[in-house]
Amino acid sequence: MNERHIVKAYDEDLNQLYQIVSEMGGLVEDQLATALDALVRHDPTLANEVIERDRLIDVCEVRIDRQATELLALRAPMAEDLRIVLAALKLASNLERIGDYTKNIARRTVTLTKVPLLAPATQSLRHMGQIVQDMIGDALDAYANRDADLARAVLLRDQDVDRLNTSLFKEFLELMAAEPHHITACTHLSFIVRDVERIGDHAANVANRVIYMLEGYNAQVTRPKDDRSSTIVLEVGESKN
User: 67 and 17 in contact (C-beta within 8 Å)?
Assistant: First the structure.
């Protein structure tokens, strides 16, 4: 095989790695959208579909790991090419974790369908979920289009997710204090809020890895955070009223 054929085969291997990561990202986006729809619709069948499809994400992670390992072993990539391969491994790890959190949302949704729907609270959570969905979509677009500026914009939006996490956590505490019969629903919704917040963190991690892949530096150290849920104290007898 001459040098031109070797270079062509190498490029094809890198492109295949890109394609698998993009495929995995598309699955993750669809899973989150479906899980949030199941939550809003109070639909256990839809939630169970999310749980069943999680294995497809795991299969993609295995494929990425295999492809990246072969590239490292057989091609010995350097400089930017090495960052591309390492980024794929990091992205796969973050996307797999997003898939896990999405499955957690679906599982709690199945439980929530056994109690009355808290429509206003669920809609607020859906709004937070939409922001996170957009972050994932933009982070993956930044990866596909090699757009570091778009990736940086994703990092900035994580702060909005943190604020909503704090706001919703306080809202659910107040609702449980005012209406104890909603404790079961609010407890599960609080865990879902935390799952969505963690998904936002992983979307930001994907964006950060894209920046590192393209520019060779870690933007994580300058990433703004504004989650204050751990500082909230609700006094006995306090409610939103």
Answer: yes
Residue 11 exposure: Cα atoms within 13 Å on the Cβ side: 6
- Distance separating alpha carbons of residues 127 and 148, to the nearest angstrom: 26
226 φ, ψ to 5°?
Answer: -150, 40
What are the structure tokens assigned to 89, written together?
């491994």
User: What are the CB-based long-range contacts (under 8 Å, 24+) for 17-21?
Assistant: 17/64, 17/67, 17/68, 17/71, 17/84, 17/85, 17/88, 18/84, 18/88, 18/144, 20/60, 20/63, 20/64, 20/67, 20/88, 21/64, 21/88, 21/91, 21/92, 21/95, 21/143
Distance from C-alpha of 51 to C-alpha of 241, rounded to nearest angstrom: 38
Provide the CB-side half-sphere exposure for 20 (13 A, CA).
25
Q: What counts of helices (H) and strands (E) characterise the chain? A: 6, 0
Contact (Cβ atoms closer than 8 angstroms) between residue 224 and residue 161: no
Q: What is the pTM of this model?
A: 0.88
Residue range 141-150: mean pLDDT, rounded:
95
Residue 227 confidence class, pLDDT cut points 50, 70, 90 = low
Domains and CATH numbers, the chain: 3-231 (1.20.58.220)
User: Tokens at residue 56, please?
Assistant: 């497809």
Task: Give 78's pLDDT tier (boundaries 50, 70, 90).
Answer: confident
Task: Specify the DSSP class assigned to residue 113.
Answer: T
Given a contact cutoff of 8 angstroms between Cβ atoms, the answer to whether 44 and 110 are in contact is: yes
